[in-house]
Design goal:
Helices cover 25% and strands 21% of the residues. The protein is of the alpha/beta class. A hairpin with a 5-residue loop joins strand 8 and strand 9.
């Protein structure tokens, strides 16, 4: 299909709109809309920091049972830093990696192994938290995308912090690059950084 179909928002079913609005406001998410109409319909929209997509809830928005939205992904590039920051605002699980396939979606913790992914792999480390109704958000650490998951013609970063961390990873990798080449100063480091950061973001082979 050649037409772009961009996911703009997801709906979460809630019991008390004002309570839920206060919860997401407390997380520091941006309030985009709160529109109420004479027929009782009300729509509220929030956008998480750095996210291109939003979350909606309200009155007469969905027939789904409140609290039944599960596995709503919030992708981060440092799971421990994100978990530590969020834990100041809401009850967040400890960082874990699946001890069995799909364990991140299970309600219990029996199949969750403590800590980050043992191999440090992208997509393998998680933490969870819930809104007041029990709708569950899933933090997932993604540092390198799988091939084909990002448009190589448009390499973007969601925030200044996201870009800064990418630069830090590129700096560390470039330091190893210089060591492999006798420790000499690399006058072409800007081009190397650019190649590394684009390749990392797009899930391509990284430069040596």
């Amino acid at each position: 299909m050649s037409t772009d179909l961009k996911l703009e928002a997801v709906v979460v079913p809630v019991t008390d709109v004002d309570r839920t609005k206060e919860f997401y406001s407390g997380l520091g998410w941006r309030l985009d809309a709160d529109f109420a109409f004479d027929n009782g319909f009300r729509i509220v929209q929030f956008t998480p920091p750095g996210s291109p997509a939003s979350v909606q809830f309200g009155v007469q928005v969905t027939t789904a049972v409140p609290g039944t939205a599960q596995g709503l992904y919030l992708v981060v590039d440092d799971i421990e830093a994100a978990r530590d920051e969020l834990s100041k605002l809401v009850d967040v699980s400890e960082v874990f990696h699946p001890g069995a396939p799909g364990a991140q979606f299970e309600q219990g913790i029996a199949n969750r192994a403590a800590g980050r992914d043992e191999n440090g792999g992208s997509y393998g480390s998680f933490a969870t938290f819930q809104d007041p109704d029990g709708n569950t958000w899933l933090l997932q650490e993604v540092t390198t995308r799988l091939p084909g998951r990002v448009n190589p013609a448009a390499t973007t970063y969601e925030s200044a912090d996201d870009l800064a961390r990418a630069l830090q990873r590129a700096a560390a990798a470039h330091g190893e690059h210089e060591k492999r080449h006798g420790g000499e100063y690399d006058e072409q480091w800007p081009a190397w950084y650019a190649s590394y950061m684009v390749a990392e973001r797009n899930g391509q082979e990284l430069p040596e």
